[in-house]
Amino acid sequence: MITREPEYFPPSLNMLGRIGRRALFGCRAAGRAGVLLARAVACLRYAFSARSRHEIVMQMYVSGVRSLGVITVVAVFTGMILSLQTGLQLRRFHQEVNIGAAVMVSMLREMGPFMTALILAACVGSAMAARLATMTVSEEIEALELMSIDPVRFLVMPRLAAMAVMTPVLTFYASIMGVLGGGLVGVTQLDVAWSAYFYNATRYAAVKDLYVGLLKALLFGIIITIVSCHAGFGATQGAQGVGYATRRAVITAFLLILVAGYIVTRLLYE
Amino acid sequence: MRALIEFDNVTKVLAGQAVLDGVSFRVRRGEVFVIVGPSGAGKSVTLKHMVRLMTPDAGRVLVDGEDITELPEAGLRRVRERFGYLFQSGALLAWLNVAENVALPLREKTREDEAEIERRVAEALRLVDLEEHGGKLPAEISGGMRKRAGLARAIIRNPEIVLYDEPTSGLDPVSSRTIDRLIARAGRDLGVTSVVVTHDLHSALSIGTMVAMLYGGTIVEMASPREFMQSENEEVQAFLRSQFITAEGVWERNAR
User: Fold this and answer.
1) Which residues pair with B32 in a beta bridge?
2) A146 and B15: CB-CB below 8 Å?
3) Shortest distance, CA A69 to any CA of chain B (angstroms)
4) Whole-angstrom Cα distance, residue B84 to residue B161?
5) Is ipTM over 0.90?
């Protein structure tokens, strides 16, 4: 069952008790999120039913297409800033022709996945948490369970499938946009030719950079979905609870994205 | 006769306070069992125990003789299939229109073809006088209509037992009586056993075949509507007086 009974814990008076309780709650939340992920993955076998397909496409539209505008703007400007900062430093050594390599590798390995994930956590994850939290406090999740409709299959699985596809796609798109933005600055402000910029960009970037970036994006998509759905299902106390769940989802997703990104980089670029 | 639902000495503690304190009662098949009591008396908590949305801290809840407090999830799903549940807010999914909400249990849990689903949805909407509003979203209809749509969804799969959580709260008197009539009609026409939780005594006395009053975590009175009105229990008398009902007062079983 997804729905949980209200819990009551008497207030703890000493600092040690409060720290211990927070640690226990943290462990319990991690365990519940892990179980939610396992159940959602198990439900992926229903992803090809007609209703699920329709819902997944809807979620792909919501998480992907609707985020395209903001991702485009942020990616282009990130590439431009990256190109300008790197180019100004490299110019001191007459090496500004190499900015293409710097921008491409940075965008593929780190900036593309991080930027896309943070935007999706803020836009899509918060909306996801708010929607599920509203459903929880208005008894809609309980209603689904009483109709023997599994909320994980009905609500979480389509979102997970959509985010697992769209986050890597958007990350790739953001990386390309960033490289183009960087090229624009290279050509207009650093006097680097388009051909030289792209030659260096493709020469130094490895295929591994691409697939590590996409792997990170997949991982971030899963983190955003599970953290947001878990926070939404745990909402209590009406509108205040919805706001609290949304805030908690965004903060937790941001922190986990940073930590997971570091761990993947450490493991794959040792 | 074996009770369809039985509470056996059920105790539930929430936030350090015993909301239910050794509650025992039986609901017989075909009955309209109404639980009344002031706000915070534990009426909704009692209802949630019947489908194990809550589990008792002590005691047992039996459905048709089967103890559901320890049932595994598969068994619980089987028991829940026998219930329909009308939530206080209606609990309709916001992004589906009224007809899609009513059709949801059929689309998700049966293999019926689309034509049959549409026929049954139209029939359920007609029963609750909402046939004109099937295409509207929940946000576009009134609170009373949302409850009626919730009722249509609750009965669409012909459950044996329907649980009603405050079906008339927040509604004007005319809408309240409409809901009362629908509850009575569901019992009479569809043969369902109903458990209604309400603080609206007019509603309770007009539709109930048995009325129980929950106060301070225990059942302080359980009787037929006429006997309930004549109860000498202090809490019952105070509750009756608060809604301007006296033992001598004229009341009609208008829902029958």
Assistant:
1) B194
2) no
3) 24
4) 6
5) no
